[in-house]
Amino acid sequence: xxxxxxxxxxxxxxxxxxxxxxxxxxxxxxxxxxxxxxxxxxxxxxxxxxxxxxxxxxxxxxxxxxxxxxxxxxxxxxxxxxxxxxxxxxxxxxxxxxxxxxxxxxxxxxxxxxxxxxxxxxxxxxxxxxxxxxxxxxxxxxxxxxxxxxxxxxxxxxxxxxxxxxxxxxxxxxxxxxxxxxxxxxxxxxxxxxxxxxxxxxxxxxxxxxxxxxxxxxxxxxxxxxxxxxxxxxxxxxxxxxxxxxxxxxxxxxxxxxxxxxxxxxxxxxxxxxxxxxxxxxxxxxxxxxxxxxxxxxxxxxxxxxxxxxxxxxxxxxxxxxxxxxxxxxxxxxxxxxxxxxxxxxxxxxxxxxxxxxxxxxxxxxxxxxxxxxxxxxxxxxxxxxxxxxxxxxxxxxxx
Length: 400
What we know:
By secondary structure, the protein is α/β, with parallel strands linked by helices. The protein contains nine helices and 24 strands.
């Protein structure tokens, strides 16, 4: 009877965990492992692109890849873990409750946006955290184009000045012009608690973001947050008011609640604090990866961020190590020393940095070409070809 590796989630980490496990089993000449992915749909949703228009096209079908690598797909959503019995319950596509056992479990459920309890946020604000919510924003903006011209109609407030907020805010000016007409006086305002634009980033990167914002006409409201959202706009904590038909929340994410019943240490973002092999301490049969793992990237104190860049590598290491634990192979401690960013800045271009100190290496058109290559090609699943997929899944191969 085959031993089962069950991977929860088909995002970047879950998909690469499955391919990585299949790769090691193939290298070892073993066909006695069943590698299964449990997720609502056999698709990768390209979440880093949800700030763009036409969000419905930002998926990749995983069925051809899974078929080529003999990876089983199970359509369903997890409802309950039974870690002592090495089993879980899930709701299948027919809404039936099903129990499945495993020999090893990989938690790759990703993360979700936190609304921080702001009054009116749930009723009146939008977000681009998931495909469905990004589509809701897209439909809303398209509907606004049919409404009478007004300051509120033409104004978008973006709550949060992190990478997601910046990419959305700098994308919106051209997006709004294409919807409302080039002569329309549109306005995009970023509300940020910090005292400077891009305060979490290097001085060089902050300067590029400021320059792009100025050129695109993106306004920043610093040193304040959102107090109340209503149907006609926002009231800020400094008492000021912004009339806006569109308010988008982008600040703060938390790991999936999948596995909340497990007794294990977590960080403030709800991620499991894992071993170098990505195991959850106290649960030798369970691994966490992607946005669910608080993992050290190096020996100087850096930890993986909740980004696609880290999720991909975390997935490859998790897949290798979970298979290794069943095949009698030595695990590979997760390491991802190199860190880069490539931030889209709309019609202005983009900015590419290297290192944890975010040294700016490329800007404008050169960086934009790299950004397009990353988001349109590099982060997508490999071809449904065994050799190519296994080569890409090597956790020790260079990713960027």
